[in-house]
Amino acid sequence: MPTETSATRDMYLTPVGVIRSSLSNPELKAGVDGIELKKGDEDVRARVKKIADLVSELVIDDRFDGILEGVEEFSHVLVLYWPHLIPDESRSVLQVHPMGRKDFPLKGVFSTCSPARPNPVLVTAVRLLSREGNVLKVQGLEAVDGSPIIDIKPYMTHYYRPEGVEMAGWMQRALEEVEG
After folding, report:
1. Which family does it belong to (predicted)?
2. β-strand partners of 130
3. Average pLDDT across the chain, whole number
């Protein structure tokens, strides 16, 4: 049972910077009814490849001078960001069709990577290409231009690659379809 001092109090996050990207709209459209994949001429494989190759900038506020010191020693970082274009009403969504695909059964949002969730904090592991002052250039970030950055952490394999990881069958199927 949650206590007043833990699970029920309000939390406040202060963005540390902003994402600069050529993406202007999210690939997944979130709303009160869940999520759906953005329609378009490109197939899903082409979209995934486009995102994997996409170079974005993480612009850290000047008030955090020194916070990036040493990050360039890592090849990859985790970017935690807020999907600012997701409407507030999508925060009440509890179940979604994963990836907006109606051929997948409804699943609880905590078993998916859906941006429609009570606290839409998104996280992506990306390749760190360079650092110039307070700007990181990264590759493979599926975040739209203007998304607030919550945090950046170095990606370390011993923390994020536990042994014996199992995935849901629907997720394995989706990955196989995307990767070919």
Report:
1. Belongs to the tRNA methyltransferase O family.
2. 137
3. 87
